[in-house]
Amino acid sequence: MKGVKIFAPATVANLACGFDVIGLALDFPKDEIFLYKSNYPGIRIHRMDGSPLPNDPKKNVAFVALQFLLKKYQQEQRFDNEKKIGFEIELIKNIHPGSGIGSSAASAAGIVYGANKLLGNPFSTIQLIRFAMEGERVASGTAHADNVAPAIMGGVTLVRSYKPLDITKLNVPNELWISIIHPQIEVKTSDAREILKQKILMTDAIRQWGNIGALVAGLYQEDYGLISRSLEDVIVEPIRAVLIPAFYELKIRCKEIGALGGGISGSGPSVFMLSKGNHTAKKVTEIMNKVYSPLKVDYKTYTSPINRQGIRWAEIL
Ligand code: HSE
Question: Ligand 1: residues within 6 Å at CB?
Answer without folding.
Answer: 13-14, 19-20, 140, 144, 146-147, 189, 192-193, 266-267
